[in-house]
């Protein structure tokens, strides 16, 4: 601590400011303190399809998917249902998909290739000029790593005859696992107005394991009929946590054993069509103890026929958190409350370790056109009363102080069913989509939404730290030294380094999303940072990642790296496994 007399000539306000966070150098010139900036929503550009699935595929590109039902974007003389969004120009270009990607899932593999999985049986509008597309339910679509910043020479690859899933899956989810493959979870076989009445209660993998034979899951059976888009995460020991409906489970991929975990308390259901959302909280060295947070959804009974539910039924404000250790599981779910209920929220991990809870509605349900007494002006939306202000959750804060919306802005664009959202490599949040309608609708309150927005954190308007000379590929259990430039007004004693998978957004869920903090040491001259990478391929499933450095609450842009050997899955164990 500095003696108080050092501050004696300064006004009280700068004294408090300086004492709380700034390095000594600022004390001599308080007028150089820059404003801290503010959160803001900025609208920029419009998509040509409904961005109902969203994934960052390169430092400048976001890939989005919709369905074959009237989007204005054209390709080869017909409607497009895949689009590449350029973060530098805020414009999109059409990509050609063969099969229908409606309500599909996806993720990146260990070699950097994006895979889109599942979809729907084609549902063409009566007078469509679109050529008949393929049945998307077994769809596998590849987007190889794209080095062209504009994406002009990059394409989707599909060969439905030879490259497809083993089972029909509409509304599945998927995640990258420790060997760099994808695990694909559940889904339904065909058009279902609301509940999962024709389930595919299995897991499969891409590339396939078990000679392509799907594995039956008692958990998926137990979680019917409200278990579409199960929320699953790869844990740091390689097992998978899944929550669906009001049930949760640990799945050991290697022994194929399911271990039931405590159900979500208070009758709350958290998966489609009663969409809450879930995230794996940031993992920190040295122990990487996994904790999951599950928020929103509904406590309505799932034995009520959908026509007896209404758009005005309150969504749940409940969040539940559990530590996935023996002791944590014994303790069970700990209940917290959001400022309001949310149906279809998403949770975005941000590089300082907080969680942005955003989007969704205060009442009603996911899906469309299925509950009783739809509100005429709202078209087919099963949900009503959009939540227009996000809220931040700080996992490190004391219970009761974790939710904070001070300074968070309010938008007037509803992001309801069929919205997509992601953290970008720039460090801000991209929001697009919303279409609780079958087909494109113009004039309802919840019309098809093409406007793109960014939610900019306060640091976007400040001088930010810059990291450079970052290797393209980094190994596990290694030390990597990178260059760093830290603006003078930041306290360089407060440095956090996050290794992030930005995830795949579909149906109020960010699959594969992950933040692993890395220990880092700043050199004496403050020009380089030595980072310790995660110990092995289970703590961070091998594949693409972004490194963000946050100094004193100001986050750098993310730098893309390949973690692990970068080979095609399944890859071998890498780094050191705990003994
Ligand atoms: C929108 O994005 C374009 C391209 O990056 C940029 O030139 C323009 O300034 C942005 N407009 C606003 C309002 O941010
Ligand atoms: C397609 O049908 C809709 C009504 O079903 C009509 O409004 C629209 O004009 C038609 N479009 C074409 C190209 O015929
Ligand atoms: C979970 O939901 C099922 C119906 O889907 C219900 O039978 C069961 O009681 C619920 N469990 C809890 C703990 O609320
Ligand atoms: C659903 O609503 C109908 C018509 O109002 C009613 O007859 C029926 O009992 C309700 N069913 C349930 C399970 O609430
Ligand atoms: C169900 O959720 C609503 C909205 O959060 C709440 O008002 C109600 O008390 C809950 N009911 C039960 C039985 O927990
Ligand atoms: C929607 O409203 C606009 C402006 O009032 C009108 O020009 C357009 O025809 C309407 N579209 C439909 C599909 O009704
Ligand atoms: C990545 O692996 C997948 C699955 O084997 C393969 O289809 C794809 O072409 C590979 N991509 C690269 C860049 O090697």
CATH superfamily name of the largest domain?
Galactose oxidase/kelch, beta-propeller
Shape: globular
Helix proportion range = under 10%
Number of domains as seen in the coordinates:
2
Number of strands: 44
Strand ordering within the main sheet = 7-6-3-2-37-38
Second-tier CATH architecture of the largest domain: 7 Propeller
Overall SS class: mainly beta
Distance between the termini: 41 Å
pLDDT below 50 for ≥5 consecutive residues: which ranges? 1-34
Give a short account of the largest sheet. 6 strands, antiparallel
At the first level of CATH, the class of the largest domain is Mainly Beta
Strand content: 25-35%
Signal peptide: 1-28
Pfam family, one: Glyoxal_oxid_N
Organism: Collybiopsis confluens
Protein name: Glyoxal oxidase
Protein topology:
Layout: H1 12-21, E1 40-46, E2 53-58, E3 61-65, E4 74-75, E5 78-79, E6 82-86, E7 91-95, E8 105-108, E9 114-117, E10 140-143, E11 156-157, E12 173-176, E13 182-185, E14 202-206, E15 215-216, H2 218-222, E16 231-234, E17 240-244, E18 247-252, E19 257-261, E20 276-280, E21 291-296, E22 318-323, H3 326-331, E23 334-337, E24 346-349, E25 355-358, E26 361-368, E27 381-386, E28 391-393, E29 403-404, E30 419-423, E31 429-433, E32 451-456, E33 466-468, E34 473-474, E35 479-485, E36 495-501, E37 504-506, E38 510-511, E39 514-518, E40 520-522, E41 528-532, E42 543-551, E43 554-555, E44 559-563
Parallel strand pairs: 34-44
Antiparallel strand pairs: 1-32, 2-3, 2-37, 3-6, 4-5, 6-7, 8-9, 9-10, 10-11, 12-13, 13-14, 14-15, 16-17, 17-18, 18-19, 20-21, 21-22, 22-23, 24-25, 25-28, 26-27, 28-29, 30-31, 31-32, 33-35, 35-41, 36-39, 36-42, 37-38, 40-41, 42-43, 42-44
This protein binds 2-acetamido-2-deoxy-beta-D-glucopyranose (7 copies).
């Amino acid at each position: 601590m500095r003696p108080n007399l050092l501050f004696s000539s300064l006004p009280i306000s700068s004294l408090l400011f300086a004492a709380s966070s700034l390095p000594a150098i600022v004390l001599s010139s308080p007028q150089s303190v820059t404003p801290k900036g503010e959160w803001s929503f900025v609208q920029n550009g419009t998509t040509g399809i409904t961005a109902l699935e969203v994934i960052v595929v390169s430092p400048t590109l976001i890939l989005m998917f919709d369905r074959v039902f009237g989007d204005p974007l054209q390709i080869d003389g017909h409607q497009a249902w895949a689009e590449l969004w350029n973060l530098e120009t805020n414009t999109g270009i059409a990509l050609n998909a063969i099969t229908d990607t409606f309500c599909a899932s996806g993720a990146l593999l260990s070699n950097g290739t994006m895979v889109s999985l599942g979809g729907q049986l084609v549902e063409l509008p009566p007078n469509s000029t679109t050529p008949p597309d393929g049945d998307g339910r077994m769809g596998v679509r590849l987007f190889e790593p794209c080095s062209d910043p504009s994406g002009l020479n990059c394409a989707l690859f599909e060969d439905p005859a030879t490259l497809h899933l083993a089972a029909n899956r509409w509304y599945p989810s998927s995640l990258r696992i420790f060997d760099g493959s994808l695990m694909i979870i559940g889904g339904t076989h065909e058009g279902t107005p609301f509940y999962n009445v024709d389930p595919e209660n299995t897991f499969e993998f891409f590339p396939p394991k078990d000679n392509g034979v799907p594995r039956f899951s008692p958990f998926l059976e137990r979680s019917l009929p409200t278990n579409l888009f199960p929320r699953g995460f790869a844990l740091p020991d390689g097992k998978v946590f899944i929550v669906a409906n009001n049930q949760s489970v640990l799945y050991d991929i290697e022994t194929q054993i399911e271990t039931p975990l405590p159900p979500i308390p208070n009758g709350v259901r958290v998966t489609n069509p009663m969409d809450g959302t879930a995230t794996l909280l940031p993992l920190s060295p040295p122990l990487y103890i996994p904790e999951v947070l599950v928020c929103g959804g509904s406590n309505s009974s799932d034995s009520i026929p959908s026509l007896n539910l209404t758009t005005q039924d309150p969504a749940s404000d409940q969040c539940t958190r559990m530590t996935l250790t023996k002791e944590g599981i014994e303790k069970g779910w700990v209940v917290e409350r959001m400022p309001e209920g949310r149906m279809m929220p998403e949770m975005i991990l941000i590089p300082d370790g907080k969680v942005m809870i955003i989007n969704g509605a205060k009442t009603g349900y996911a899906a469309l056109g299925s509950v009783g007494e739809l509100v005429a002006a709202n078209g087919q939306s099963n949900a009503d009363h959009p939540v227009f202000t996000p809220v931040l959750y700080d996992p490190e804060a004391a219970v009761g102080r974790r939710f904070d919306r001070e300074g968070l802005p309010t938008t007037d664009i509803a992001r309801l069913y069929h919205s997509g959202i992601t953290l970008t490599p720039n460090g801000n949040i991209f929001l697009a989509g919303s279409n609780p309608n079958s087909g494109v609708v113009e004039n309802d309150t919840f019309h098809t939404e093409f406007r793109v927005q960014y939610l900019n954190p306060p640091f976007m308007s400040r001088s930010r730290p810059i990291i450079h000379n970052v290797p393209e590929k980094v190994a596990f259990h290694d030390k990597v030294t990178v260059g760093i430039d830290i603006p003078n007004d930041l306290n360089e004693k407060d440095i956090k380094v996050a290794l992030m998978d930005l995830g795949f957004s579909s149906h109020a869920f960010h699959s594969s999303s992950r933040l692993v903090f890395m220990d880092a040491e700043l050199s004496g001259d403050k020009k380089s940072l030595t980072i310790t990478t995660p110990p092995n391929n289970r703590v961070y499933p091998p594949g693409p990642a972004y490194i963000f450095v946050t100094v004193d609450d100001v986050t750098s842009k993310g730098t893309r790296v390949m973690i692990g050997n970068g080979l095609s899955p399944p890859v071998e164990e890498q780094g050191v496994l705990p003994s």
